[in-house]
Model the fold of this input.
Amino acid sequence: MSEEKPNNNEENPTPQPLMVEEQQLGEEQAEAAESLPQAPIEEEDLQTKLNELEKKANEYLDGWQRARAEFANYKKRVEREQAQTYQLASSAVLKKFLEVVDDLERALKNCPPEIQNTEWAQGIELIYRKLFSIMEAEGVTKIEAEGKQFDPNLHEAISHEEVEGYEEGQIIEVVKQGYQVGDRVLRPAMVRVAR
Done:
């Protein structure tokens, strides 16, 4: 049996009516486009718009940079305030321990000679050293006073005396030890001052 080959022209007839419709649509669109008023885009208008947009971008950048700087300042201020709050709280607690340190120092200074080398006396000295090392870890230092010039920021004078061998304003004796944390005075040293 011989197969009949279909005619390509019969299967895919040329769509001529469609071409006519497309052509008519294209002409209508072209006419419509011609009827619209054409606004010529000028270079000056584009440059003006570009300048405005650059100005806005610079304003946004400036605002962002200011906000960033303000946030950094805020963060530093909060950290500083937290450090100050910690210092104030720790200072209040440390001041209370100063009285215990004073008592231990007096006990060690006035220890009777017959018990100075006993385990009990060594235990008291060990307690004193541990307590003071804890305070040093918190930044507490003794205020050096004996033989120094009187400084009302660091010392509290309990008496003014005329003593040979000392200049006027020089500290003769420390009656009660003073302490500080960094530059902040926890307790001024109570001293006798030469006149």
